[in-house]
């Protein structure tokens, strides 16, 4: 069960030693979600570099990440502009992710049913993060709950397509919404784990798809 036992990065090390570009990206994302930046507003690299005390390179990297996630548009020789993150592209991302996770669950469930503890660890991690209000831990365990399932499918193309959706970034975008309760986020994963433990492939597949539809409403 190599796909289930491959160790993930240490969350604490990642949080403590995040590259400056990642920290800038996360702060910009939270500003976009909170409405600090409005749709269509220009994000000026030089001004942001001064604000964050960095060179323009990590700011440029952060903006590229946000563009790939559909939150920013970079226009050559004009600059970077905030997108409407409720736009159609966001709907498409959730629809595609739901389809990928449903397909992966169908392949992965026989293996996960034999070793559900690895998925359960991440549900426990989310519950603890909710109790402590730890956003970084919540993002980490939420993404890895689903990544373990994707890896267990043992389908490299499915996994690459899923990773291309920038799951951590979109998880963060959802969790920092003002109407989102981290306890509810954690518990929304519990029925999926229960279906895995029961070995109910059809229920697990349906819940995997519906889980993304639920979070689209929160985004």
At a glance:
72% of the residues lie in helices and 5% in strands. With 219 residues, it is mainly alpha-helical.
Q: Would you give an account of this structure?
A:
- With 219 residues, the chain is mainly α.
- The protein folds into 2 domains: 18-82, Arc Repressor Mutant, subunit A; 87-218, GntR ligand-binding domain-like (Four Helix Bundle (Hemerythrin (Met), subunit A), Up-down Bundle).
- Helix content is 72%, strand content 5%.
- It has 13 helices and 3 strands.
- The chain has helices spanning 2-5, 11-16, 20-34, 45-52, 56-68, 88-114, 117-132, 135-152, 156-163, 167-175, 182-187, 190-198, 201-218; strands at 42-43, 72-75, 79-82.
- Strands 1-3-2 form a 3-stranded antiparallel beta sheet.
- A hairpin with a 3-residue loop joins strand 2 and strand 3 (79-82).
- Helix 6 crosses helix 8 (135-152).
- The longest helix is centred in the middle third of the chain and has 27 residues, at 88-114.
- It is elongated, with a radius of gyration of 18 Å.
- The model has no long low-confidence stretch (mean pLDDT 88).
């Amino acid at each position: 069960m190599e796909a289930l036992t491959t160790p993930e990065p240490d969350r604490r090390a990642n949080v403590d030693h995040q590259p400056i570009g990642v920290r800038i990206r996360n702060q910009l994302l939270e500003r976009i979600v909170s409405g600090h930046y409005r749709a269509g507003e220009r994000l000026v690299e030089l001004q942001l570099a001064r604000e964050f005390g960095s060179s323009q390179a990590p700011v440029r990297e952060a903006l590229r990440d946000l563009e790939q996630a559909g939150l920013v548009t970079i226009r050559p020789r004009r600059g970077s502009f905030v997108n409407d993150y409720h736009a159609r592209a966001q709907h498409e991302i959730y629809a595609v992710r739901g389809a990928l996770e449903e397909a992966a669950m169908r392949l992965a469930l026989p293996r996960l049913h034999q070793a559900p503890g690895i998925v359960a660890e991440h549900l426990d991690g989310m519950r603890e993060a909710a109790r402590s209000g730890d956003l970084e831990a919540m993002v980490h365990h939420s993404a890895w709950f689903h990544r373990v399932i994707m890896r267990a499918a043992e389908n490299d193309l499915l996994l690459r397509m899923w990773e291309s959706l920038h799951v951590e970034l979109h998880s963060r975008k959802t969790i920092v919404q003002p109407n989102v309760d981290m306890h509810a986020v954690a518990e929304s994963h519990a029925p999926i784990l229960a279906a895995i433990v029961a070995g109910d492939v059809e229920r697990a597949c349906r819940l995997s798809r519906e889980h993304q539809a639920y979070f689209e409403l929160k985004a």
